[in-house]
């Protein structure tokens, strides 16, 4: 039996969603092959939490834990931390240093994809389209006229490095820009302001499945709110239609772009890319490398549509980590 540490929590606004994801992984882990351990990673403590909710501190020297005088070490780590330090490369680099296999991409890919501005600038030369954008760093002069001249209205103001739609605003008038910028700065000191793309939003899961890069059936996002914000994502204010209601030709086109991005970046593990299709052109918004894994999250929905059970999805991720 392999011992698998399921890391969850994290240091960002997304920690609650991560705890949910981690518990789903724990619940659906193949009990005939693995012994799962829920590991909470917070700034103030790294602890193993057993089924009685007792906490045991993690030894950061080798990521082991001592329970009742017995030292437990792990064969692999299943990473379910959304946001920092699980999705931005910090945990990946740490596990790489101590030689412990983990289920997500490598540290460079994690850091790159977590930074929306850097990700899009790396993919652009490969012909992957993205929205017109304007960048701001905290302390920069805010020239609202220049912003509107570049990206137009309406536009989206987003923190450069954050997930779950925290800190994102849709701005319809020039006067609203300073407020939206302040909201985004609460999440990050770097901002990306993007032109509004009027089209169909789809979310595309790409995984390495049994050693082959596989694009899952994509999900069409129809938000009841102005855009796919936190409420739409987690509080039921959206319709998520899997597979998306787009033509087979367009499905193939978007799938090819998502797969190409995965391969260009030498990704491993899960990825979920967001696109807006305008006419018949997909524009990439971002890529998530630790997507939600709750039962209602998009990757599990897409896996179900592809005939892959959660147990199989998680086993596949662990086995790939172990063979790396």
Structure description:
With 324 residues, the protein is of the alpha+beta class. Helices cover 31% and strands 29% of the residues. The chain contains ten helices and 17 strands. It has helices at residues 15-28, 90-98, 107-114, 116-123, 144-151, 177-185, 230-234, 248-264, 298-305, 310-323; strands at 2-9, 34-41, 46-49, 55-59, 64-67, 70-72, 76-79, 133-137, 155-159, 169-171, 190-195, 200-209, 212-215, 219-223, 238-241, 271-278, 281-288. The strands form three sheets. It has a seven-stranded mixed sheet with strand order 6-5-4-3-2-1-7. Strands 12, 13, 14, 15, 16 and 17 form a six-stranded antiparallel sheet that branches. α2 (90-98) runs antiparallel to α3. It starts with a strand and ends with a helix.
Please state the average pLDDT score. 94
- How many helices? 10
Across the major sheet, the strand order is 6-5-4-3-2-1-7
Approximately what portion of the residues adopt beta-strand conformation? 25-35%
Secondary structural class: alpha+beta
Order of helices and strands: EHEEEEEEHHHEHEEHEEEEHEHEEHH
What would the principal axes of the Cα set say about the shape? Answer: globular
Count the E strands.
17
**Helical residues, percent:** 25-40%
Largest sheet: 7 strands, mixed
Short structural description:
The protein has about 325 residues and is of the alpha+beta class. It has helices spanning about 15-30, 90-100, 105-115, 115-125, 145-150, 175-185, 230-235, 250-265, 300-305, 310-324, and strands at about 1-10, 35-40, 45-50, 55-60, 65, 70, 75-80, 135, 155-160, 170, 190-195, 200-210, 210-215, 220-225, 240, 270-280, 280-290. The model has no long low-confidence stretch (mean pLDDT about 95).
């Amino acid at each position: 039996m392999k011992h698998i540490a399921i890391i969850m929590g994290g240091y960002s606004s997304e920690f609650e969603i991560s705890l949910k994801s981690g518990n789903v992984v724990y619940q659906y882990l193949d009990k005939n092959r693995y012994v799962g351990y829920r590991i909470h990673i917070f700034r103030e403590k790294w602890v193993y939490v057993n089924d009685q909710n007792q906490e045991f501190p993690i030894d950061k020297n080798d990521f082991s834990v001592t329970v009742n005088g017995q030292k437990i070490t792990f064969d692999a780590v299943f990473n379910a931390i959304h946001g920092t330090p699980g999705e931005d490369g910090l945990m990946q680099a740490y596990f790489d240093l101590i030689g412990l296999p983990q289920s997500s991409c490598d540290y460079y890919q994690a850091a790159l994809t977590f930074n929306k501005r850097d990700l899009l600038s790396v993919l652009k030369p490969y012909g992957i389209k993205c929205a017109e954008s304007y960048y701001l760093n905290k302390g920069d002069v805010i020239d609202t006229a220049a912003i509107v001249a570049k990206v137009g209205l309406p536009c989206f103001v987003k923190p450069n490095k954050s997930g779950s739609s925290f800190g994102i605003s849709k701005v319809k008038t020039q006067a609203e820009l300073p407020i939206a910028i302040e909201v985004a700065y609460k999440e990050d000191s770097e901002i990306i302001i993007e032109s509004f793309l009027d089209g169909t939003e789809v979310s595309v899961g790409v995984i390495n499945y049994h050693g082959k890069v596989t694009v899952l059936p994509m999900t069409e996002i129809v938000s009841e709110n102005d855009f796919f914000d936190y409420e739409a994502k987690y509080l039921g204010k959206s319709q998520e239609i899997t597979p998306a209601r787009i033509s087979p030709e367009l499905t193939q086109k978007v799938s090819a772009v998502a797969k190409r991005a995965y391969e260009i970046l030498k990704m491993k593990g899960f990825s979920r890319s967001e696109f807006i299709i305008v006419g018949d052109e997909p524009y990439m918004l971002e890529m998530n490398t630790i997507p939600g894994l709750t039962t209602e999250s998009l990757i599990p929905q897409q896996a179900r549509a592809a005939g892959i059970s959660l147990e199989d999805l998680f086993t596949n991720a662990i086995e790939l980590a172990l063979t790396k």
